[in-house]
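WARN no homologs supplied; continuing
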Amino acid sequence: MTIDTKHVQAIVMLPGPQRYEYFVKRVVESGVVWSLFRQGWALAKKEDGALVFPLWPEREFAAICADYEWSGYAPQSFALEELIDELLPQLEQDGIATGVFYTPGARDVMPTAGLLLRDLRDEQRRASSPSNDQDGPA
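OK structure emitted
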């Protein structure tokens, strides 16, 4: 799914906590997560030198950062289940934080992998609960 430029601009301008909320809801809805890849996954560093694995909810947002901060990297998707079952537990074990929904110049949302994992699982439960059934009773 391609999203329009106005939508991209509006979402990119949201404060960090709102981008984080958008990320969690969108990736649970789509089942897809995006990062950047070029002979290996892109990584960032916190001011203290700790490693951060950046993630985005849609290709267009990852591409923006590929054009600015990670020149030569390309957006690469993977399944939400892979993030939940494999990557986040490994990042947590390795002490690597997640960089959720970076934008050019804004790296303010860096939850631990464990916190992101919990929030994604909570959203999955919320999204699949009977009270969220749009069709109602049969």
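The mean pLDDT is 87.
OK
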